Amino acid sequence: MDCDVPVDDLITILQPDNFTIPKPPDYINVDSGDSYLCIVVDVETMIPWDEYEHPFFNLDDIEVFSTSRTYWEPCHRSLSHEKISGMLLEAGVPVHKQYGMPEQVAAFVDEVITKHGSAEKIIPILVQVDIVACFCVEIPPHLIH
């Protein structure tokens, strides 16, 4: 799919109720007085096969691959759009598919920080992104036909 073909990519941002928080990296001291955001970015990339190459295409023919990245950030400050864009990019969302996503995540993070402050040591945030692959998305070699 061409990169300039408009598609409905989707982002969902939430604070999950039943969420297993990953083990923090060694540089995070959960016993200190600091609070941290644990931001998990899950990306599902759908690969639509060309209907001309696959004339009997149906929804069962869509292949999906998933990536996930976890980020730990101090809870005392807002995250810049550039920082969030970098997180999304590292997790597999090309910059041109991020339209409005960094702003949505930043607004949600600000709301969570305002709501929880330092009352909790670790505050989980789940960012789920569904995108349709285009030519610039790196597709794992085992999925290429």
Describe the protein's topology.
Blueprint: E1 10-14, E2 36-47, E3 63-74, H1 81-91, H2 101-116, E4 122-132
Parallel strand pairs: 2-4
Antiparallel strand pairs: 1-4, 2-3
Helix pairs in contact: 1-2
What does this structure look like?
- The protein is an alpha+beta fold and 145 residues long.
- It has one domain.
- The protein has 2 helices and 4 strands; from the N terminus they run βββααβ.
- It has helices spanning 81-91, 101-116; strands at residues 10-14, 36-47, 63-74, 122-132.
- A 4-stranded mixed β-sheet has the order 1-4-2-3, with helices on one face.
- α1 (81-91) packs across α2.
- The longest helix has 16 residues, at 101-116.
- The two termini are 15 Å apart.
- The relative contact order is 0.31.
- The mean pLDDT is 80.
